[in-house]
Amino acid sequence: MAQRSPSAAVLVLHGGRETGTEPPPPGLLNLPGTRMRPFVRAVGRAAGGNVLVTPVRYAHRGWNGDRADPLHDAVTALDALREEAGDDLPVVLLGHSMGARAALRAAGHPLVRAVVGLAPWCPAEDPVAQLAGRDVVLVHSDRDRLTSPRATRSLTARARRAGARTCMVTVRGGDHAMLRRAPAWHRLATGLVIGLLGSGSLPGPVGAALALPPTAGATEGTLDLDLDLGPGPGPDPGRFRARTRSRAY
């Protein structure tokens, strides 16, 4: 029996390093990839069997300056989906840190409908024109010490002015690795992806933020997970500890 083509797809892009031309380590040794496995499982369960949810494989561990290696890996994965499923397949990109940067840069691909970026790496010089016409929701902890919540807020506003529909959600008390308040990160990311795929409803405040005009200020599209998006996730498991390395994204 021929396998049905997916009705939609979610490509998951994990974090990495600023530099590193070696390939990521295999399996569980690839800690940034391992961190995204709960997101893959949660989104897959919520999306249903005919939505493809798959990680993007990186050829190199780092971003590597102008090479922007993960960006090319993302585009290669999107091109493969397009060849397999055609031009009408809606895709949401879900990325963390360096992977979120790659997702934002790859969003101009014809299949991409939306980007969900978790603790994104958003250099001020990165372009935003490719985000026009896309939904972009960026989620950042107020205590992130590795990537900048302020830079994320700035990119949210710049992208809105460029024609994207944007929103930023602040997770209070979280961390870059998304280990503190992990259940909240998992649940929020899953709800955003499913809502942006059209398989569920987005939280009302997120929908309102996405509908803001291009002239809205940087803080107007910024929401607080606890104050704006309903009840909190309950107690956080005490066993979680953030473990990040310098210059890892």
UniProtKB/TrEMBL annotation:
It comes from the Bacteria. This is Alpha/beta hydrolase. The keyword Hydrolase applies. InterPro entries: AB_hydrolase_fold (IPR029058). Residues 240-249 have a biased composition (Basic residues). The keyword Heme does not apply. It comes from Streptomyces sindenensis. Residues 228-249 are annotated as: Disordered. Keywords: Hydrolase. Signal peptide: none annotated. One of its GO terms (molecular function) is hydrolase activity.
